[in-house]
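Entry 14. Structure prediction run on the chain below.
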Amino acid sequence: MRPAIVLLSGGLDSATVAAIARRDGFVVHAISFRYGQRHMAELAAAARVARHLGVASHRIIDLDLRAMGGSALTDDIDVPKGRSPHEMSEVIPITYVPARNTIFLAYALGFAEVSDAKDIFLGVNAVDYSGYPDCRPEFVSAFEQLANLATKAGVEGSRFTIHAPLLNLSKADIIQLGRSLGVDYGLTSSCYDPAPSGEACGRCDSCQLRLQGFEENKIADPIRYAA
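Output returned:
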């Protein structure tokens, strides 16, 4: 069984990806980030998901992306609510965190190299998503090239693979797949602006896309939403 590094945010997508890695025979080593995000509930969710899936290890890395600012997730900027499907697919929102997935993958790459893992999994999606440039196929492909150019392991011929198995799936497809793998979505947290007690807002981009996925599957979302 080969080790794999899995970026685990605690959301619906990353929980599904961790389950996929486990299904495919990898020993899952999960990494989450405390990066100054306003939606800290996701870290508690990541820990719940890690326990539920029985991962081999789960690290939480401290970063401070608030120093850069420029995002509603790390700065004193209102999270957009009630955006239309067109806006979500065509306009990059203020919830985009500059270079976040690049930074996270760089950390994952470092851990992969020192742990002899050649596989890195992340839950980016280019179908039902908020228009982020670092959730697109071109980004994943380019980072894989970088990984094999910028590391000792890569240049010595031990190549890394970046797995993004959800890239071309809708939220409804992801939920259906995750349920078939035994993912308990009641443990996850996707909201960009949850209440202090943890309830999801139901109106941010992430909540709307999540709710649409469950609705298309004709099942209720098991998490709690604010009234």
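The beta strands are 3-7, 27-34, 57-62, 119-121, 161-163.
Filed with the rest of this week's runs.
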